[in-house]
Specification:
alpha/beta; Rossmann fold; Helicase, Ruva Protein, domain 3; 3 domains; five-stranded parallel sheet; 19 helices; transcription regulation; DNA-binding; phosphoprotein; P-loop_NTPase; nucleotide-binding
């Protein structure tokens, strides 16, 4: 819908001239010849921009500017044939975005109006972003880290567009939640969001799942089926694990994306829909293209607005925010009396590498709540966490630490007087390993082949002895 510009000018010939200047821009224009009419139009229509003459027959134009509410204020360009420096300063202080002195050239007028409307759009986008992002949460996405702030900003910027969003990230990082946020932030939020996992559907059925089929089109087609594309009409179609799609079907998907049209299986009729595409994969799509498993033309058609979701291990204190939200959510599902987690638990959650990302974290939290009915979750309630086998910088650190330990020797007692209590010898050895691991207890636990909760319990018992 084109923006609306209200021209407040008491000289009819000038008002018509300004309207003619704006004809090439495609905006809607309204005219008011006095202040009272202008105020009435502003209250009823809420224009995007007001071109405001200062000298009006019934009032000063700056008085109108002063009455506009700052929270929902249109952009204002002030016009006058009697400009002074003081008047310009006053207009800017009252919220005007620009100040023009008559007579005004057509190009200068159009440029000023276009710039003011761009500022209006930018302000609206910022306001929408602030309203959607609150207390570390953006729709169903949680996290205040810089990485996630960047993701939120991309989604917010893309919300007004129909451009395809391509989400990449490790398994379990929340790609479907990200896709839903793209949908919820857009003007399609009230329309359907249809998700389709390309890896979970047999190769011979996926075309029917996307495009639908007619009764009798193949064995087992006992009724007509609309398909995901038809169900998503007017809304968003999310294709998860896209790189798993059969290479032969990719050509039909490309044609659908290019034209917005498709044919159901068993039909010659062309169906046209209005769909916004969001795709996701946990693979590197360019590697898939190089290996011939993903069409290059389809990749470039879909890879318009890329979003890369960071793994959980790189998101710092986001892990605590996500964990606390999951504890509350799952406790409600399980009717659990959960209140809070201890600082030791928080430290463990941050230090662990989470190879399964948010999905793994959620499973661990559900395990804790199901097996422990206590209100306060402590470190000894956390189950043993599997070692991360992925090749990450943390894995390299553990390997180098293992080598360092191999090069480290401990003096064994050679007389009875030098023999220490077993718990004390164990304490010194464990503390030495923790020091080598830069106080990262999950790393130390991995090297010692015990669970982090075991080390936390031992450390706590030593404190009680001392």
């Amino acid at each position: 819908m084109p923006p609306t510009v209200l021209i407040v000018e008491d000289t009819q010939s000038l008002a018509m001239l300004y309207q003619s200047y704006l004809l090439p821009t495609g905006v809607n224009t309204l005219v008011a010849s006095d202040g009272a009419t202008a105020i009435d139009i502003i209250n009823k229509v809420h224009p995007d921009l007001i071109v405001l003459d200062v000298m009006l027959p019934d009032m000063n134009g700056l008085d109108i500017l002063a009455t506009l509410e700052p929270d929902n204020c249109p952009q204002v360009v002030v016009l006058t044939g009697h400009a002074t420096k003081e008047m310009a300063i006053q207009a800017i202080k009252l919220g005007a975005s620009d100040f023009l002195e008559k007579p005004i050239e057509a190009d200068r007028f159009r440029i000023t109006v276009n710039n003011a409307l761009k500022i209006k759009n930018l302000k609206q986008a910022v306001t929408q972003y602030k309203n959607k992002y609150e207390n570390g949460k953006y729709f169903d996405l949680i996290g205040s880290s810089k990485q996630m702030q960047s993701v939120y900003q991309i989604i917010s910027s893309a919300s007004v567009s129909k451009a395809t969003v391509f989400i990449t990230g490790e398994s379990g990082t929340g790609k479907e939640l990200c896709a839903r946020a793209v949908h919820q932030a857009s003007n399609r939020a009230n329309q359907p969001f249809v998700a389709l996992n390309c890896a979970a559907i047999p190769k011979d059925l996926i075309e029917s799942e996307i495009f639908g089929h007619l009764k009798g089109a193949f064995t087992g087609a006992i009724a007509n089926r609309v398909g995901a594309a038809g169900q998503a009409n007017g809304g968003t179609l999310f294709l998860d694990e896209l790189c798993e799609m059969d290479i032969n079907l990719q050509s039909k998907l490309l044609r659908f994306i290019q034209t917005g049209s498709y044919q159901q299986v068993g039909s010659e009729k062309v169906v046209k829909v209005d769909v916004r595409f969001v795709c996701a994969t946990n693979r590197d799509p360019l590697v898939e293209v190089e290996n011939g498993r993903f069409r290059e033309d389809l990749y470039y058609r879909l890879h318009v607005i890329p979003i890369e979701l960071p793994p959980l291990r790189e998101r710092g204190k986001d892990i605590i925010e996500i964990a606390e939200a999951l504890f509350v959510k799952i406790a409600k599902d399980e009717s659990h009396p959960y209140k809070e987690i201890s600082e030791d638990v928080k430290q463990l959650l941050i230090q662990y590498s989470w190879p399964g990302n948010v999905r793994q974290l959620e499973n661990v939290i559900r395990n804790v709540l199901v097996l422990n009915p206590e209100q306060y979750i402590d470190i000894d309630m956390i189950p043993a966490l599997p070692e991360n086998t992925k090749k990450t910088p943390e894995r390299e650190t553990i390997n180098s630490t293992t080598q360092l330990m191999a090069d480290t020797t401990f003096d064994l007692p050679n007389t009875q007087n030098n023999i220490k209590a077993l718990w004390l010898a164990e304490k010194e050895y464990i503390e030495h390993v923790i020091k080598i691991c830069s106080s990262n207890i999950p790393k130390a636990a991995s090297l010692l082949d015990v669970s982090p909760s075991t080390l936390y319990r031992k450390i706590k018992s030593w404190e009680e002895i001392q």
